Structures are given as C-alpha cells and as structure tokens.
UniProtKB/TrEMBL annotation:
SUPFAM superfamilies xref list: Cysteine proteinases
EC numbers on record: 3.4.19.12
UniProt catalytic activity: Thiol-dependent hydrolysis of ester, thioester, amide, peptide and isopeptide bonds formed by the C-terminal Gly of ubiquitin (a 76-residue protein attached to proteins as an intracellular targeting signal)
GO cellular component: cytosol; nucleus
One of the GO biological process terms: proteolysis
Protein name: Ubiquitin carboxyl-terminal hydrolase 40
Keyword Nucleotidyltransferase: no
Molecular function terms from GO: cysteine-type deubiquitinase activity
Family as reported in the entry's similarity comment: Belongs to the peptidase C19 family.
Stretch list, region Disordered: 1006-1026, 1258-1285
C-alpha cells in the first residue's frame, strides 16, 4: 500500500497539528503497514464541512455546494464507489468523566453527528423508536434474505442510540448507519447542510416506518400548521390557506433575534394597496387588503432553522450572516398563535439543543450544545466534585475566565462599590487581572470593549455618555403584555439565576458535543453563539409541560429493548478484553520532531524562529519499526520537504536546543537504537540550518555561563557596580574566550567554588590554564565566572574571598536632588528589606552632608530606568512594603511625602503628554473633582473655568472624562502616581451632547449657497478644513472631493429636535459669510469617515431618537430652497449622462417619496417625472464607487413564484442595491443614447488601479498562500429507502 504526499495545510486539517494549545498525536500501530498515516488521522478531523443553501425535495437535496477535500483520503482507500474502511489501531477509549459518548467523524459527517445527538437527547423520540420491536422492523439477520422486509434505517438508529446510552466507549461509529443510507465513501467525505439533512432524514424515517405503529412518529412529535389569511378591507371577507411544517425557517439578516423574526412573520401584516391591490372573490374586483399569518397548531418539539447563509448579487458570492442574533432559553409563542382557549403554558417552550456552525460559506465545522433532560451525564469532573460550590466571585482564579470576557468583566464589576466603574478603569483592571489588554486578547473576536458592553446590555448598563458601566440586576421573564418588538432583545435567563447552575441535583445541565469530544458547559455559554463566525444555526425547543417519568432519571437502560441491552452488555465485556490485550502489547512511544526550517542558529544554540509551539510536532510511533520506516513516514507527512532528510538526536540545554549524534542504519529497529520515550529528534539536511553550519556532538555542547564583571559608566570608566550577564560558549572552546568576548585582554578569571565548610571561594584560573577547554576546566552550565582587570583587586580580599555577591547586595543609591551643594552627588546607603524609609532618608542626609533642616522637609522618590522621578515613598514604609529592590536608585527631593490620606498626582495640559512636562500635586483623597481641578489650574496658571479632567488610561492616552465633579477622588478610585490631564472645554451637563458642527459644501451646479466674495478672506475657522480624498470612481467631477469646514461645537439637549439643532448651528454660520434664512434651508447629516453619513431627515424628531453617541459629529448642507423631509423621503444625487462623452452632468438632488414602496418601478417613475421624460425612455443605475461599477435598476427585475403566481416587487433597500440617502443615480436618455454602458473614463482608470494593487498584493503574499483548487461540481445527497407499502 502506498500513501500519498499530504500537504502541510492538509495535515492541520486532518489532525496532525503543530504544538500549540492542542496537540493531536499520530499513532502508528505495530500491525499497521508503514505509512498508513490516514488510519490515525481518520477519526480526528477538526475541520468539517460547512453548510450549503437549501435546495431539494424530500429525499434528495443539493449538497456539496462547497469544495470537496479529496486530499484527506489516501489513494488506495479512495476510489469510485469504494467503501472507506480503516482498521482501528486500538480499542475505543472508555467514556470520560461526563459519562456521555460522542460520535466519531467519518471525515465530513459532523453535520450528521450533531443532528443525531439532538435526536438521541430527545427522549420521546428515542423511546418511540425503541418501542418498535423486531416483529415490526425485522432483524439484521434477515436483511440479506430476498423476501424479508427489514427496515434497516430504524434498526441502525436503535443500535446507535443504544450504543450512545450503554456502550463504554468515548465515541460511537456511524459507519453502519451511513451504510444503511446507501452512502459511499464519497458521500461520507462530502460536505452538506444540517438543516437539509434534518428534512431528508425525517422523510426517510417516515417512509421506513410505513405500516408500523410508528408510522406517525415524525408527524406526532414535529408536525405543526400555519394559517395564512387575507382580509378584504371592503367586505371583510377572510381567505384562508393552511400550511404544514416540520421546522420553521426564520430570517437572520436585518433581524435582531428570534422573537423579532417571529414578530415579523406572525404578527405584522402586509398591506395590499396603491398599485398592489388584491382581487377579492366576494367583491369581484381589486381592493385593499391585509395579509397575515399565524401559528395554528404547535408540535411538542419545535425546530427552528436560521437563514445564516445568503448570496450577495453585487459581489456574486455567498456569504454568512455573523451579526448578533439572540434567542431565549424559554419562549412564549402565544403572541404568534391564533386565539384559542388553551392554557398559556401550552405555548411555553424550553430550549434543549443548539446546533452551531463555525466557519464561513466554503469551510467550517458543526457541533451541538445539548441539554441533558434525563440527567444521563456527569456535569462535574472528579476534581470539581471535591470543591465546594463557588459563586461568581470565586471564579476569578479559574483558567476559564481568561477565555470568557463576560465572566471576567462580571468579576471585576462585582468587586467594585455599587458594581460601577469608569470604562477606562475597567480596561486597566482587566489588564492587571489577566496580564494582557482587551485589544490583544479579545478585540479580534469580540470587537472594541465599548461595543462588547453595548451588545451585552442585558448584563451591563452604560451611562448616557458611555463613561461608566454598571452591572445590571437580573430581571425576570418579560410578561406577555409587555411583549413588543425591540431592537435589543433580552437574554431571558441569566447565568446567576439559572437553575442549571445553582441546583445541580434537580435541573438538567448542558454539554458541548463536538464529534467525539463531550464537555460540560454552562447556560451562559449559549450566549457566545449569538454572533460571529461560530454561531447558532439550528434551534430545538420542547414544550415545557412535557414531563419525564422519575424512573428515567439518570437511568440509561430505561426504555431500551431487552435484545439491545443484552447486545450492549456483551459488547462491553468484549471491549474490556480488547483493552487489556492492547495495554499488554502497547509498543508505541512518543517522539518530538523539531523541524529544521523552523529554527535558526543564534548565540551558540538552536532557537525557534516563531515559537516553540509551532516548531515542534509530536508523533507517536511503533518502536518496533525501523529507522527507515520512521524516515519514510516523516517524508510522507512533510510534503514540503526537499532534498535529503537527516534525523539527529537533540536535547534541550540551558542555552537552547543542541544536536548530538546522527541516527544511522535504516534497517535497525528503533527499540535497538536506545531511543527513549519522549526523545527530541531534529529533522534537517545534516549540513546547515538557515545557511549556517552548526556544531554537533557532545564535545561542542553549548555552556551557559554567568559572567560577573564591572559595569562601565557613560564616560567609559569602570565603576564599582557589578553586572551579571549570561554568555554561551562551546564546551570545547578555550577558557580564555571569556576574556576575548568581554574585551579584557589583561584580565584575570576567577571561578566560583565552595569549600568543604560551605564557604564561598573564588579561585583564580592560572594563565596556562586559559588554553584548556571549558570541559577540561570543570565548568558546567550556570557556572559563575568573575572577570577582573589584572590591575584592579578591589573586589577580592587577599584570602581570595569575594567582597560581596550579587545575591547579597545590601545597599541603595541615593542622589542629591535638593538643589543644595554637597561634597557628594550620590551615596550608597547600606540597608535591609526591613529598613524603614525614614531611617534611610536621615542616613542619606548625613552622608551627603546636607543641612539637618532637610529632615523635616524632604522625601525619597524612586527613579525609574528612564530617569523619571516616581511617587514619593512614605516615611513609615519598610523597603519591602515600598517594593524597593536592593541596588535601585532613589532621589532625595525637597518637600514632604504624602500621608496615608493624601494622594500624589501627576498632571499636565492636553492629551499629548511629553516626558518631563508633567507637574506634581499632593491633595487629600477626599477632595472633589471640582476642587482638584481648581488647584491644578491655579498651580499651572491657566485662566478660565472651561476645563475638565481626564485620567490617563493604561495605554497612556486620554481616557474618559471625570464627569462627576462632586465625587471624591477616592470614590473614582484615583490612586497615588496616577496622571490626570487638563483638557480645555467644559463638559456638557447630564442629558446634553457636545456636538462638533461642520459645514458641508458639495461641488454642485449653481443654486447651492455660495459665500460672499468679500468675506472669503476672513479668519479661518478653528478646525480648519477637511478635504477628503477623491471618491473612488466618482462619476464626473461632482463628488471628486468632499469639503468639510469646522464651525464650532454646540451644546445641545438630547431632547432637542433636529430643527432646534439647525437653529443653534445657524449662529455659527456667519463666520463663513453665509446667510441662512431659516433651518428649513439646511440639511443635516452625521459625519462618518470625514464624509456625510446618515441623514437626519425629520425636523421634529428628537436627537435621542437617532441614538447619537457622545462622539457624533454633524455636518450641515446649505440648500437653495426650503426642505421639510418626511420620514419616508429619500435624498438621491441624480446625474444625467452626457451623450457620447462617457461622462455625467453635475448632480441634482432628487427627493423620492417611498411611501408606495422601495420598488424599482416607483423610482423610475419619479426619475422620469423629475427629468420630464417618458418612463420607457430612461434607464437608471446606482453607482458603487468602491468597485467603480454601475448597477442598472430595472422595473422588470421581478421574481415570479410558481406557487402564488404573483409578482413579488423588489425592495431596493435590500440586495443587490442597498439604496440609501446620498447615493448617486445615473440617468440615461434613451432618445439620444441607447447603449447599455453607464461607466466613465474615470471608472476605467479606477479599475486598472485596483487591479494593479490586487496583483501587487497577490505577488507579496503568493509565497504564503496555497493556490486554491477549483471547486468540485455540486452533488446531491440522498438516503435510499426500500418500499414498505
């Protein structure tokens, strides 16, 4: 048998990973032929197929819309219509502490595994299937008989569920089940969608169970009905149509959560009016009508499929919706149902399964969160059982906190007074707690900190100015009367009140089942699947009134037929026997492969180029194999390897990795070569590493020596301070190399030795011994060597004993910074860790021979490595309490140190802090922010009262303002040594916004307001001018530039209307020479990326309704005439195409009333009327500047559904147009020009520029990227079922 070359990227996908957070070990058994690598990899694929779009019928669906990975199967195993059978190398491992069994992945069946686990943990489904005996389903023994009707699929499901319940193995196999489906190895490696599998599997089961007592199993558990109604507004006649469903498909795009989607589907009405009337059979004419839908019959188990995968018609590619989509643990469906006399509890459902997809459209993996309804699993490990129950505060020392930002942020807030903290301090405390910042650890996955807090508004409450955050108290379920549409849904059940966490004995727990791996999770972990590339894809709810019998609790044998119980008992005995045999014949050992291309030779030893984790691969191999077998297997795994491959034994020494003997003799067995378990092997070409020939062997083993020598001052003179530095030398180098390395040609070497009495001696190395090697001299790793100039004996006594050792430094250096002359600039003061700072200071004053008066008016301040004076040390502290290290430098400074009730603060003006510009102040910690600000202004000599304070955050940037001026510094957790920034500008009072206002002057046709010529030479505005870069591909010259001129800041109430904002802004416009008659002559936009963004269209609407943030900026556009936009008006920039010139005339604004809908026909009629042209004689297109493309808007772009035979109008707000305010619409007059081209010369140039950048970037990264393979053609998935009718 041969094994193909497997690429490095493929190895990662197959389970052979580089060392990192997770290691997958490859096992090569004694009976396994050489190179059968795939046998070990087959069951450990961490990356499984993604879903695809839903197309298909009951038994066949469009599968494999994503690329197939044929390289994951060896050539001899992969063939057309050949079954993939890989012999297990060892018996399945027993169940782990959860006592639950996973399902092995056959290469691409994670979608099947997730659905099967969901059905398995639906006890009513499992037991209904178990209730069907051999007399109805037949038996496996009769399946090959020609006349026997054996319902093989239900039988295999029964056996699989029995194995999951009773067989003592960590993961069950679905090979027999997929055989019963009629699947080949092609199908098991192909990628499919779990939502479609759910439907096709139910169809197959219904067909398999025809003629049995379980013929209505699917219908009984999952069938529901929806009624669609159309009510005539004239005669009130109701037209009804009922539809069946087994699962509900709900939208994700532009929807905040499940309840919002259900509200849109089953509460909101669709109106037929204007040009879209309904034909009433009773009235026999077109009338206005209202269409709605309601849930009529609810099943015991409700399945919800989320439409996360869509198609972008502009980019012509599939994409996954990763936006936040919430769903509750418990949901009341009564608002979405027809009115009935049923009890309210009949409409309440509990979530019990969430199938999750991780990845994108063309690759990914499924796993499932399961609620253990019958308490079959063990939710706690043995270690956790021995621990007492802990609350949230106790979690701060657990490793899981680092991976879940929600937990650690809760912990931090729970430790704060009133559970409130400024947001900038929250980031700083997070850094202190976990040792890394939010941006480094969480930003890539969760976004900015403030955005994370906003998205979790059910847990955190941000203040109106977003400066502080507090922890919300847990709320109860929202009452039905309060059930309304809301943009921000509440996660119904918070973790701290979850019975699944607090009552371990009575309530079910949740598990994450990821193929073979099963691990316990908490209810709060479900919240992680609201959004992102790893997010919920299918939801399964069960009626809360469904009760389980007491005898089923924690009893996996409950409901299992007797013949399956006997079969599982016999299988468990066989498993125990096989495991015993395996243990006795286990001959595998673990090797650590160090790949030469991942190392470089530095400082005498080998070191990883990137990280140790990415440079070492773990391999478990049969020690009875030969060296040649090992070399050949590694060759097959590393298909990127070129040239010879040499395996050498390597070891870690203090200096790094060193290569010893080369392994030779390909015919020798590994066990004969005395290779130990866990041996490090260096894989290289045997000559060089990174272009450098490396020394090998034990003779030149690198030694790491600690060398002591005198420090050199900045003037080049030797000082009395000893430095200890590590140096690496080969063992066979001469000892004199130390003097050469340190450039001390006349030096003397002393070697540290210990006499029999335990004393420390320094023995000089004779000059003749400098020619000896380090090994001959008896030096070892970490040996201590002293280098001294032969002319300087100040460090040694005559007896050869060292005057002072590095571990015995007992002094601190004190510099005179009192601006008083003294004989000494600095002195060394002997001390111990228990010396009191006051005594140290008095001793320094005496030795510096300064005036005794300084004893009452001086302090000691540490000096950092940059020479900056830090906060004074209180006199009452010991050196240990002050965290002062021996040998550090202190400055003796004038002024008293702060007392225990005082704070020593740095402060400076502005946010750009330059070193050395900070001022210092000592204040009481009970002082208010207002009084502290006054003191700082007085000390800095700054006039006025238009200042506020901000605390410098942990990134050394201006943090959030100290808004609560009456709060004390202690309440705001200001500490000694903090830096406060004096920022010009008074903070707005609560409920007010400080909004920067800009003037927006688009370059357009005459008619827009122009400044008076005599006023253009006035004083420039405070903020100057933003002149944004040219809009990419802008048609003509109109939007080539966007000019924004700063007018000033406005302090406006959040309750103010847009019209009031414009009125206040008009007081700023005279500085530009404009005369604005009224606010109706202004158009207000938000500023986004230095350009107009969102239009504030309704003058009477309050600013708070627009949800303007603290950092929102506004720009005002002057108009020639009054404008009062309604809520349905859209402002578009229209441009008429110039015939024959491939260019456009300047833009003219068009206000389009969308009250009749965002349809293409409505827009075309409006544009035709605006241009005074027949509607059939114009063509219009929307411009996409980022792609330099025009997309024609045709009124004939309508979809015709076969079922309803009714035209469905396009909505221009959605794909592919995404029309919004400010978009550019090109207009073509077909009377003078009838070609289909909307592009301009500027578009051609822009596309060429984009293509050049793309080629350039692809060249830069071509070496790092793997060429993509063409995707395989789409194939259908089917389950073959015999006829039982």
């Amino acid at each position: 048998m041969c094994v193909p070359n497997v690429g490095l990227g493929r190895l990662v996908g197959l389970g052979f990973r580089q060392n990192g957070l997770k290691r997958n070990l490859l096992h090569f058994g004694a009976s396994c032929p050489l190179g059968t690598v795939l046998g070990a990899l087959h069951f450990s694929s961490p990356s499984d197929p993604p879903p695809h779009s839903r197309v298909g019928s009951s038994f066949t669906m469009f599968g494999d819309l994503f690329e197939e990975d044929y390289s994951s199967v060896s050539n001899y195993e992969y063939g057309k219509e050949k079954k993939l059978k890989t012999k297990a190398l060892e018996p399945p491992a027993p169940r782990e502490f959860t006592n639950l069994s996973g399902i092995r992945n056959q290469g691409g069946t994670c979608y099947l595994n997730s659905l099967l686990q969901t059905l398995h943990f639906t006890p009513e489904f499992r037991e209904a299937l178990f209730s069907l005996g051999p007399e109805e389903l037949g038996s496996f023994e009769d399946k090959d008989k020609p006349d026997a009707k054996v319902r093989i699929i239900p039988l295999q499901l029964q056996r699989l569920f029995a194995q999951l319940l009773l067989l003592d193995q960590d993961a069950a196999s679905t090979a027999d089940l997929t055989d019963s489906f009629g699947w080949t190895s092609n199908e098991e490696m192909r990628q499919h969608d779990v939502q479609e599998l759910n439907r096709i599997l139910f169809s197959a089961l219904e067909t398999s169970l025809v003629g049995t007592s379980g013929h209505d199993l699917i219908n009984r558990l999952y069938h529901g009905t929806v009624v669609n109604q159309v009510v005539c507004k004239e005669c009130k006649n109701v037209s009804e149509k009922q539809e069946d469903f087994l699962d509900l498909t709900v939208a994700v795009k532009n929807v905040s959560g499940l309840e919002d989607a259900l509200w849109t589907m089953y509460v909101e009405e669709e109106m037929f009016d204007c040009d879209n009337l309904y034909h009433c059979g009773t009235c026999d004419r077109l009338v206005k009508a209202a269409k709605s839908a309601k849930l009529r019959k609810l099943p015991p188990f409700l399945t919800v499929s989320l439409l996360r995968f869509n198609f972008d018609f502009v980019k012509r590619e599939r994409y996954k919706e990763t936006s936040c989509y919430t769903f509750p643990l418990r949901i009341n469906l009564k608002p979405f149902c027809e009115q009935s006399d049923l009890d309210d509890l009949e409409h309440v459902y509990d979530l019990f399964s969430v199938i999750i997809h991780k990845g994108g459209c063309y690759g990914g993996h499924y796993h499932v969160y399961i609620k253990d309804v019958d308490h079959l699993g063990n939710w706690q490990s043995q270690e956790e059982k021995s621990k007492p129950d802990v609350n949230l505060k106790d979690l701060q020392n657990e490793e899981e906190i680092d991976d879940d930002p929600l937990i650690i942020l809760k912990v931090i807030l729970l430790q704060e007074e009133n559970n409130v903290i400024p947001v900038d301090q929250l980031g700083q405390k997070l850094l202190k707690k976990i040792g890394t910042s939010w941006n480094k650890k969480y930003r890539k996955q969760y976004g900015p900190l403030r955005k994370f807090l906003q998205l979790h508004s059910q847990v955190f409450l941000l203040s109106s100015d977003e400066s502080t955050v507090s922890l919300l108290k847990n709320g109860s379920l929202r009452a039905e009367s309060d059930f309304q549409r809301n943009d921000q849904h509440v996660f119904k059940t918070l973790t701290s009140e979850s019975p699944g966490l607090n009552d371990r004995n009575s309530c079910p727990h949740w598990f994450d089942i990821n193929d073979s791996k099963v691990q316990p999770i908490k209810e709060k972990d479900i919240e992680r699947q609201f959004q992102g590339k790893e997010s919920a894809y299918m939801l399964f709810y069960r009626k809360s009134q469904l009760q389980r019998p007491p005898e089923a609790r924690a009893n996996p044998r409950y409901g299992v037929p007797r013949h399956l119980l006997n079969e599982m008992d016999a299988a468990n005995i066989e498993l125990q026997t096989k495991r015993a045999e395996w243990d006795s014949t286990n001959n595998n050992f673990e090797l650590h492969l160090h790949l030469g291309p991942h190392y470089h030779f530095f400082n005498g030893a080998l070191h990883p180029i990137i990280s140790q984790a990415e440079s070492v691969w773990d391999l478990t191999f049969d020690k009875r194999k030969t060296l040649g077998d090992l070399r050949q297997s590694i060759f097959q795994l590393l298909d990127f390897w070129e040239g010879d491959m040499v395996l050498s034994v390597a070891k870690f020494v203090p200096a790094g990795l060193h290569v010893y003997q080369m392994l030779d003799g390909d015919d020798m067995m590994l066990c004969e070569m005395e290779i130990a378990d866990g041996e490090d092997l260096f894989v290289w070409n045997g000559v060089e590493v990174g272009g450098i020939q490396i020394p090998t062997g034990s003779d030149c083993e690198p030694l790491l020596l600690n060398v002591l020598h005198l420090a050199t001052s900045s003037e080049g003179e030797k000082c009395q301070q000893l430095l200890e530095s590590p140096h690496v030398f080969p063992s066979n180098a001469e000892v004199g190399a130390v003097l050469t390395t340190l450039a001390v040609p006349m030096g003397v070497l002393f070697v540290n030795a210990t006499d029999p009495a335990g004393g420390e001696n320094w023995v000089a190395v004779p000059k003749e011994d400098l020619k000896k090697t380090f090994r001959e001299q008896g030096l070892r790793n970490k040996s201590l060597v002293l280098v001294q100039d032969s002319r300087d004996n100040s460090l040694l006594l005559k007896q050869g004993k060292w005057f002072t050792g590095m571990n015995e430094i007992n002094w601190l250096q004190v510099q005179n910074l009192c601006e008083l002359e003294s004989e000494e600039k600095q002195v060394k003061i002997s001390a111990t860790v228990n010396t009191v700072v006051f005594d140290l200071r008095i001793k320094a004053i005496k030795e510096l021979k300064l005036m005794k008066e300084l004893a009452e008016n001086s302090c000691l301040r540490p000096i950092d490595r940059n020479g900056k004076l830090l906060c004074p040390v209180p006199d009452s502290y010991t050196l240990k309490e002050a965290e002062l290290k021996m040998g550090s430098s202190l400055g003796l400074c004038p002024g008293k140190a702060p007392t225990s009730s005082q704070l020593f603060l740095f402060f400076t003006m502005g946010s750009d802090v330059q070193p050395g510009t900070e001022m210092e102040i000592i204040v009481e910690e009970t002082i208010s922010v207002r009084d502290c600000l006054k003191l700082m202004l007085e000390q800095s000599g700054l006039p006025g009262d238009t200042w506020h304070l901000r605390k410098m955050d942990w990134c050394y940037e201006a943090g959030e303002p100290l808004c609560e001026e009456d709060a004390t510094l202690r309440e705001l957790m200001i500490c000694s040594g903090d830096t406060l920034l004096l920022i010009e500008g008074k903070l707005p009072p609560p409920g007010f916004l400080k909004v920067p206002v800009w003037w927006y002057q688009p370059r357009g046709p005459a008619g827009h307001w122009k400044s008076h010529p005599d006023q253009r030479s006035g004083t420039p505005s405070p903020g100057g001018v933003w002149r944004a870069a040219s809009t990419q591909g802008a048609p003509g010259d109109l939007h080539g530039e966007v000019s924004l001129r700063y007018l000033g800041d406005l302090e406006v109430s959040e309750d103010a209307t847009v019209a009031e904002l414009k009125s206040q802004a008009m007081t700023l416009s005279p500085s530009l020479g404009f005369v604005i008659p009224s606010p109706a002559f202004l158009r207000a936009w938000t500023v986004e990326s230095q350009r107009p963004g969102r239009l504030l269209r309704t003058n009477r609407q309050q600013l708070k309704e627009y949800r303007l943030g603290r950092k929102t900026e506004i720009c005002l556009e002057p108009l020639q005439k009054e404008e009062n936009l309604g809520p349905q008006d859209v402002v578009l920039r229209t441009q008429m195409r110039l015939p024959g010139e491939r260019a456009y005339a300047p833009c003219v604004d068009l206000v389009w009333d969308t009250a009749r809908g965002w349809t293409a026909g409505s827009l075309r009629q409006q544009v035709a009327h605006f241009c005074s042209l027949p509607v059939e004689k114009i063509e219009i297109a929307k411009y996409f500047p980022e792609k330099f493309e025009w997309l024609p808007i045709s009124s004939w772009n309508q979809q015709l559904t076969k079922r309803k035979k009714k035209k469905k109008q396009d909505n221009l707000q959605g794909a592919p147009y995404y029309l919004k305010d400010g978009d550019t619409i090109g207009i073509k007059n077909l009377l003078v020009e009838d070609d289909e081209d909307f592009s301009t010369v500027a578009d051609d140039l822009g596309k060429k520029s984009q293509e050049a950048l793309r080629v350039q970037s692809s060249d830069l990264f071509s070496s790092a990227k793997t060429p993509s393979r063409p995707r395989a053609p789409e194939a259908s998935l089917s389950i073959h079922v015999g006829s039982f009718r």
